[in-house]
Amino acid sequence: MGTKRRICGALVALAAVAATAAHAQSTTEVLPAIDVWASRTDAGIVGASTSVITAEDIARSPGTTLQDLLSQEAGVQTNSTSSGQNGAGTVVDLRGFGATASSNTLVLLNGRRLTDIDNSGIDLSTIPRNSIQRIEITRGNSGAVLYGDGAVGGVINIVTKTGVAQLPSGRVEAGFGSFNQHEINASAAASKGPYSVSAFGNGVNSDGYRVNDYVRQRNAVGDLRYTGDTGNAWLNITGDDQHLGLPGARLVDVNAGINELATDRRGATTPDAYSSKTGASLTAGVSRTFGSSVELILDGNLRRKDQTIFSTLFGSDTSDVRTLTTASVTPRANISTLWFGVPNKITTGIDYYNSTLEAKRSVDLTDPPYHTYNLNQQSAAVYWQQTVSVLPTTDISFGARLQQTRLSARDLYDPTAPGGAFDAQAIPLDSTELQHALHLGFEHRFSPMFTVFGRLARSFRTPNVDERIGVNAFPVDFNLKTQTSRDIEGGVRGRFGDFEWQSSVYEMLLNNEILFIPFPPIGADINLDPTRRVGVENSATLRLSDALRLKGALSYTRATFREGMYAGNDIPLVSRWTGNVGLTWDIYPKLAAFDAVVRYVGERRMDNDQANFQPLIPAHTTVDLRLAGEMKNLFWSASVQNLFNVLYFDYAVASSATFDRYNAYPLAGRTFMVKAGATF
């Protein structure tokens, strides 16, 4: 009841603020309206390093996945525990979190949290590529004020297309590629008066690069909306169905003369392991503008995910069957007004999330569970972000978030079930925690060609349910400390004719960083000693002519322990140097276009090698090419990924005791994809 009263009180306060601003709007000069379907701020967070990937960038990418595209952005790395077909099993890492990247990079869909409270991460392959209007990237932890916990490395907001103001249209596309990959994509959109509708869907089947590396994926997105003069209403539905084979790792043990990367690179350690996942989401919302300066938005979401994982862990079969349900309500207000003659832009609101997980762990799917975990997590937050144009050339942004998280966790343990005799019951947990996030940023434009920016921020990340559960019940305690982070960043951006660039430098200090230790006798998540991340990120684009453009990025990322027994050591799975150069060439308008990307990923430590005594994962360089064209309503493309057939891997788990012994997850060599389709 206390949480409900706080929410109601905050709603009243929110309405009062909106009403006051609405009353004053008739005599004030206002700033442009905010796109409510996108992020909670229309021009990015002042002081933060940001970038946008457009629908054209997505269509022109030689890579076949969104992860490929994101890895071309400064400060973004990836790692994969599969061959990377269709992006399944590939994790996006902003600013060097390695094994915990999925929990420290917050992914949004149309400004709403897509990242769940479990450890499965966001599989971007579940979002049809042809449904995406743009992707907004905010680096660093300043997004925590607007979006809450988990926005430590940064925020990726995926904005989908709508049918607003579109004539009836449709698009179909079919593709065929390596490893018997078949793909089909379809979309349709229409509008009449204030009403519009759009639908997107795709299906992918691939046998995969390795044995038991198959992908079976179906996705759909539907959107129905009303767009009026003083308000909007929308209903968005998504669904996905995914089946993956889990081939496991390839063992390398130099001392024992074993190197499966060389002798059986495409084989499977776990030929029967698999993951099956279905998801569905429903979002409904309304917005209302008051004059030209105030917009109130009320939306809610219901999301469900059912997942079954059957795997072999440490020589034993393990089955995990779970259902995760999340309901959320997020009322907010966007206000543009003048205070004391100074333009102000305010975003304020309330976030309420209620997530329930039931996870059953057994030896085999037909066995009774020896653990049945039931966890309920509720979070209620109020936030305020304000941007003040103190001068025509200078903006200052400040904001704060106060969030309360309540968790109730229980373990129904059956020692008589198969596998139960060797485990123990987890200790019940009922906890309530209050955390806060802060942001202070500035931007000063010396001229239209040169700008400096900077920020200070604090964020936090509560442990997710999988980190509390761990692989087994040892230590038998759901409790972990909340991870906190403090950031400082400064940068410059500019434009000189057809040349645009951005550079930034940052330092991030973390306490109680959460990490999973994969090998016995621990096999559970722990809080690390204090850690640090420092980095330099550079990106640039150059238009050589109307037909030829270059784009590149170069990043240095250093993630280390700053205290404890590993002080000074590198954090695993973070490459210090990454970079890429891309070329876009319109050979002949519409009839022929050529795209190419050269991508470099530096060496990195293996997972579980906090002691830094194992060999490094080698650096690699890959080249992707694409040739495409269109004529009237027909279009086609042919692409090659990893042109020079580089045999590499970007994820491996090292032995904590035996030098030169590790398990690696090899990625595919050279692959191709041919697509053709039509619009109508």
Counting helices, strands and paired strands, the structural category is: mainly beta
Architecture, according to CATH?
Beta Barrel
Q: Biggest sheet, open or closed, and with what strands and sense?
A: 23 strands, antiparallel
CATH superfamily: TonB-dependent receptor, beta-barrel domain
Beta content: over 45%
Secondary structure elements and pairings:
Layout: H1 2-24, E1 50-54, H2 55-60, H3 66-70, E2 76-80, E3 90-94, H4 101-104, E4 105-109, E5 112-113, E6 132-139, H5 144-147, E7 154-160, E8 169-177, E9 181-192, E10 195-206, E11 215-227, E12 231-245, E13 250-253, E14 258-259, H6 260-263, E15 274-290, E16 294-313, E17 316-329, E18 332-339, E19 342-362, E20 371-391, E21 394-413, E22 429-447, E23 450-461, H7 465-469, E24 483-496, E25 499-511, E26 514-517, E27 524-527, E28 531-543, E29 548-561, E30 577-588, E31 592-601, E32 620-631, E33 634-641, E34 652-654, E35 661-664, E36 671-679
Give an overview in words.
The chain has 680 residues and is mainly beta. The protein has one domain (2-679): Beta Barrel (Maltoporin, Chain A). The protein has 7 helices and 36 strands. It has a 23-stranded antiparallel sheet that branches. A 5-stranded mixed sheet has the order 1-6-7-4-5. A 4-stranded antiparallel sheet has the order 14-13-35-34. Strand 11 (215-227) and strand 12 (231-245) form a beta hairpin. The longest helix has 23 residues, at 2-24. It starts with a helix and ends with a strand.
